[in-house]
User: Fold this.
Amino acid sequence: MLFRLLAYALPHWKISLGAFLIMVFVRAVSVYPGILNKRLFDEVFIPPENVESSGFSGLVAIVLMMIGVNVFTTSFSTIRSYVMAIVGQKVKHKLRTEAYQHLNRLSIDFYQKRNTGNIMSRLTQDVGRLEDFIAYGLQDMVGDILMLFFMFSVMIYYNWQLTLLSMIPIPLIIVFTVYFGKKVKKIYHIVWKQIAGISTILASVIPGVKVVKAFGREEYENGRFVKQSQRVLETGLRSARWESIYGPTMGFITFSGSIILWFAGGRQLLNGDLTPGELIMFMGYMMQLLGPVRMLSGLNRRFLRAATSAERVFEILDTPPDIADSKNSVRLEHVSGEVEFRNVSFSYDDEQEALNDVSFIVQPGEMIGLAGHSGAGKSTLISLITRFYDPTGGDIFLDGKNLNDIQLDSLRDRIGVVLQDPFLFNGTVAENIGYSKLDAAKTEIVAAAKVANAHEFIVNFPDGYDTIVGERGARVSGGERQRISIARAILKNPQILILDEATSSIDTETESKIQEALERLIRGRTVFAIAHRLSTLKYSNRLLILTDGKVEEIGTHEELVAKDGTYASLCQKQTDLSRIRAL
Assistant:
């Protein structure tokens, strides 16, 4: 998984190689202060009996060399850190962009099976951890290993017996690190999922704050958040317990090496087999070993976190879209608008069928009204036309071409949709209307708004078409949101128009205006319209009545009323309800 992650850094291999070479050189030079300490004691402070001290001049020379080494390592370490930060940021940008682009290719079914907060945390928190690993973690790990190699090389050169004794704790370090890694990796997986759970709560509650307050559920939501946060706390404490054991244990194991050095090195010093400077150098290196060892222990945690985050991000990238272009798919050059359902069936869960053996043909320019009880399959039917889903049985044709053989973007370019729940992006009114045609001129946007009877209320806003609608259109009313979304569909000028409860959020007066606009709009277009208020479907050429996923009736309003079936029953119920309201 991490090797796959490193492939994202390959385009920057030249700059990464330069930073790596700087790091190697800096780590090699970092060993030299230990040798200078040895010289300070053996040549200046406590020279051997047969060697004369270099005195104050020697002291000054060695101290200046120490300063020079420090300035050199600090300067080049700063350059390397900045260079790798650039690489890390570029890799994060590419990874995050690829993941987001792939998310946009995935089917609706993917989003319905996952929480929004979970997806968001993968593109933010997990990608951020991967940047840290690529920019710093990996090279720091290699650098610390090189540091240990350089130090042990110098130690072996001066006294190989003492060096071997100082390496006794290393097997213990390896065993404990492997054991720790297995324990903590499982915990990290749980922690990330629980943190994603917090993001999910926030993603649902913040947009729905009006509902929370309207029902007085602040305390309930507080309790739900606290409960999820408590889960994160408990799992975090489990992780903290292991991490708190790991650091001190590694420190103690390393410290045991210094005890061995004091004992064995002190004995050699007393026997005259070791100079004071060499013992100081060995002890300095032993203490210096604590830094790389502790960093490696920290990098082990960073390594595990990066591996966990990489799995979560690549899970998105490796998810194939359920709806995709076939190898032989073609672009639509011209659409007349004939739509045919041929023995179409569909199920969301492979158990209960939402549509069952549905067949009908819609002629170009025909308006089809879809009606039926809730759950009859109306919304499912139009979702299949837009290829949000593919049928589990049967075929759908547009102008004689199977939808599976038409390129997705080409198909959806010909379809305009007004959904039952109008969704507006956090931008201006003009940007939301122009979303269906990104290169639309301001005059085209205004014209579409006028057709949707939205222009009048838009120009009354303080900033007119530049008014910010807020997140999900929270700053405009439900009816205004609906009319803006209708204008968005009108601007697209599609050959096929889908109206899913397009007038559900509009008052009676405005509905009559919309009906007039729709009468003009449907000319020359194939239209599918869903409405619970059957009066909205009065301009339909034919009505298609669904019951439990099957086509029960199809015909004109007059034909179905005369048939005295399901449609006639629905009309009678709505007529009775209207009379009750009029009282």
User: Anything to note?
Assistant: The longest strand covers residues 353-362.
